[in-house]
Structure formats: C-alpha cells, structure tokens
Amino acid sequence: MKSITAPESHAEATPPPARTSWWRRLAPLAVLAIGLALFFATGLHRILTFDMLRAHHADLTAWVADHWVLAALAYMLAYAVLVAFSLPLASLATLLGGLLFGTVLGSTLTVLGATSGAIAVFLAARSAFGDILRARADSFLGRMEAGFRRDAFSYLLFLRLVPVFPFWLVNIAPAVFKVPLRTYALTTFLGIIPGTAVYCSVGAGLGGVLDRSAAPDPGLVFEPQVLLPLLALAALSLVPMLYNRWKARRGERS
Where in the chain are the domains? Predict the structure, then answer.
C-alpha cells in the first residue's frame, strides 16, 4: 500500500510548481499593467498636465537650483518609472527636463532614464512571452522572428529614430522576437537621442513661454525641418540591412 500511495501523492504535488512558475513569469508584466491602470484610476492623468507645470515651474526651478544632484537623479528615476509603466507623460516630462536642466543635460538624463525604463519593460515582456515562439519555428511567426533577429540592430534603430511608432510597442516587440538585450539597449539609447534633443530644446525655452502664459507645441517634432532629418537618419539605419540582403542575393546568383 505504501508503494502505491507514494507515487499518487507525488503526482498530485507536481502541478502546483508549474502553475507557480507560469505566474512568476507573468508577475513583472502584471505589475507594470497594474501600475498603468492605477495611474488612470487615481486621476493622475488629469493632474500631471502642462497647467500644473505652469503653476509650479518657479518652485521647481528654485528647488533644482538648491538640490541639483538630487534633482537630476530624481528626474532620471522618475523618467525610468514612467517609461516602465508606459505612462502617457513622456512628452511633458521631456519638456520638463529641458526646462529644468537645459538641452544637453536634460537630453542626457532623459535618454538614460528612458533607456533604463525601456530595459525594464523588455525584461518583463521577455519573462512573460519568452517561450511563445519556440514551438512555432516553422510557422510564419517563426520566420518573422528569424528575420528580425538577423537584422535586429537596423530594425530597432529605425523604429527608435522614427517617432510615429508607439514607444511601448517598440519596447515589447523585441522581447517577443528574442532580440539580445545588448542590441536592444544600444539601439534604444542611440535611437531616442535625436527626438529627445528636439523636445528638450523646446523645453529649454519654456521659461519665456510660461511667462507669456502660452503653451509649447510638442508637435514640433513632426514639422518638416525636424521630421525630415529624423527620417533621413532612419533611412541610413537600414543601409546595413539592405547591403546584407543584396550581398546574399548576389551570392545565390553566383
């Protein structure tokens, strides 16, 4: 009897670890999703606005002047958090960075914070979806994954340089397609520099705008004189990929 009951109790104890492992993998992404839901549920999206910035910009500027290092670290950490939780505050926060720290330092802090937050999203998504495509190696998704991994650097740099793609989507997609973390981090860091510099330069001139009780136009990044150079950089990022494909086809013909 002992030899019969022992295997049964062992079999009954096996499923829970599998379920625990599944929830453990989903937990990081679930935390980020809950954080985004709480942001809207608590009404913070109606509080953290340009009007609030206008009302408190003098106090913020004075506080930064008195606590420069702490303010820089706090801004970078706050930016990483808003990116990690995909909060719709990136434009306002980038303008604030330019206002408080100037174009160069504001851009630097913003890029570092945004890259850190994007890496957090990437790791959470990879933990949750890392095995989705393993059983589909011969399917369309599997072939798409292989192509993405082969030209990951050019693809990601293009997606980062062109500001019309949702930032949160570009954070998650590479994790699903198993892009290496190093490639993801480097392309994120380099790709968001131009757009960030544009927004921070607008933010650096906010003082006069706020004094006139006017509002800046974040849509400046879509103006031809700004967007066209970004598109040119994006096109250049595709050159290595196109060259590799041309070289491969030439090799097949020969």
Answer: 19-253
